């Protein structure tokens, strides 16, 4: 076998291993599409939630008649995967505690599923391309490009640099941000884990409190600008 053949085989093996390592995120991604179709009443022709060859998964459905439905189905993984990841990571850092190898393994499992969900939270290029086309084909939908445009541009960038070369670092940054939010130092984390204690650090819930502060600050700013006068 030539060097080029070995290189292709190596890439395939790495791709397969990565797909297996992040399988929970793939399943959540496709489930988000499927459940949104169910809620929106859009018929689904076929659905595959995970596979080793070909696309990681897919959901084929009828074409929605409304832009809002098209956008909801396409962008569902972004909300579902990020939401699941936030809940799992917050729970693992602030609530879950235990002793022994099984407790540490359970904590690591929460992190695995959470990070995998983040890695596969970005909608596919096909989904975002469909929403972008539906947005730009009608002049009265152009203001919605402010919402769809950044995601579409991010997806195009992922196509240039490599999807996982973009999503993996972003997911790790999000994980580091969650850890920093709880003032958890790497040394304190390692001390607990090596001692067989998950959650022995001071991990009071922070994410909800921070989000509440941000929302209240935003409402105050809107009131000050006269844009949200009826909020008590």
TrEMBL record:
Keyword presence, Transmembrane: yes
Keywords assigned: Membrane, Transmembrane, Transmembrane helix
TM segment ranges: 70-89, 101-119, 139-154, 166-189
Protein name: DUF3267 domain-containing protein
Native source organism of the sequence: Halonotius aquaticus
């Amino acid at each position: 076998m030539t060097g080029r053949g070995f290189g292709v085989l190596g890439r395939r093996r790495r791709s397969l291993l990565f797909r297996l390592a992040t399988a929970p995120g793939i399943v959540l991604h496709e489930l988000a599409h499927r459940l949104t179709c169910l809620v929106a009443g859009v018929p689904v022709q076929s659905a595959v939630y995970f596979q080793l060859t070909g696309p990681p998964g897919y959901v084929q459905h009828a074409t929605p008649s409304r832009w809002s439905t098209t956008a909801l189905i396409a962008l569902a993984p972004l909300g579902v995967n990020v939401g699941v990841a936030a809940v799992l990571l917050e729970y693992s850092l602030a609530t879950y505690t235990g002793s022994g190898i099984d407790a540490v393994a359970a904590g690591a499992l929460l992190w695995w599923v959470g990070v995998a969900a983040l890695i596969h939270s970005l909608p596919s290029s096909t989904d975002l391309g469909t929403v972008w086309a539906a947005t730009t084909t009608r002049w009265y939908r152009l203001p919605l490009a402010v919402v769809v445009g950044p995601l579409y541009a991010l997806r195009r960038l992922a196509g240039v640099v490599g999807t996982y070369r973009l999503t993996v670092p972003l997911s790790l940054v999000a994980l580091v941000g969650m850890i920093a939010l709880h003032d958890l130092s790497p040394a304190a984390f390692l001390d607990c884990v090596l001692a067989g204690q998950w959650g022995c650090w001071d991990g009071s819930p922070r994410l909800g409190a921070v989000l509440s502060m941000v929302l209240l600050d935003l409402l105050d700013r809107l009131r000050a600008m006269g844009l949200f006068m009826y909020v008590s």
